Amino acid sequence: VPHLLTVAGSLRAGSSNAALLDAAARLAPGSLTVSAFTALAELPAFSPDVEEGPGPLPDAVSHWRAALAAADMVLISSPEYAHGIPGVLKNALDWVVGSGELVGKPVGLLNASAASQFAHPQLVEVLTVMSAVVVPEATVLIDIPRRGADTTRLAAEPSIARALGSVLTALLQAASAARPAA
Ligand SMILES: Cc1cc2nc3c(=O)[nH]c(=O)nc-3n(C[C@H](O)[C@H](O)[C@H](O)COP(=O)(O)O)c2cc1C
Predict the structure, then answer these.
(1) Residue whose CA is at the smallest distance from ligand 1 atom 30
(2) CA geometry: angle at 86 spanning 171 and 32, to 5°?
(3) Which DSSP string do the residues of 61-127 spell out, in sequence order?
């Protein structure tokens, strides 16, 4: 069964991006398993020296890399901070530039805020240079209020459910193209 890992670029407890990703998970068909990676804040600041050793790799980094490696596709939803990618998300991506868990992997990108216009194209650029496969049909703006985001209500809203459904379908198609059944 193909597996989707969702990653929210916000650490906020009431994050609209996390709620949108949770709504996508609720709407996922039975042919897809979904888990959310919620430990971005545990990753240490990226350092090539730590990555190269000789000391052991921090557990949080191993967990992040393993979660990505176990996923056939990834769905990221991130806010924009000061016209850029939130540091916590960029830091997490920096930890897998060298190890390559995103290479060739289909990635979808949700943008939960129409006001945010800079972080989204920056994420496309960063992921593309890391050789991830950013799936255009899984890269969408779903403008929702940043306050009071509720997963159940989002998943029940027809236009949102339709948009998230298309994103999941596009990711599944990209994943089966990337890793055809033997
Ligand atoms: C430090 C900081 C900087 C922000 N900078 C921007 C920005 O440049 N552009 C923008 O559209 N929103 C900006 N915002 C608003 C967030 O993108 C917005 O609150 C978003 O909904 C937060 O996502 P979340 O609900 O998942 O936490 C900023 C918020 C914070 C806290």
Answers:
(1) 81
(2) 20
(3) HHHHHHHHHT-SEEEEE---BTTB--HHHHHHHHTTTTT-TTTT-EEEEEE--TT--SHHHHHHHHH
Calculate how far, in angstroms, residue 83's C-alpha sits from the geometric centre of ligand 1.
9
What is the token pair recorded at 165? 């459904």
Report the atom number in ligand 1 closest to the C-alpha of 146.
Answer: 21
pLDDT tens, N- to C-terminus, the chain (182 residues):
999 999 999 999 999 999 999 999 999 999 899 999 999 999 999 999 999 989 999 999 999 999 999 999 999 999 999 999 999 999 999 999 999 999 999 999 999 999 999 999 999 999 999 999 999 999 999 999 889 899 999 999 999 999 999 999 999 999 999 875 55
Report whether 110 contacts 7 (CB < 8 A).
no
Q: Residue 83: enclosing H or E segment and its boundaries? A: none
Helical (H) or strand (E) element with 107: strand 106-111
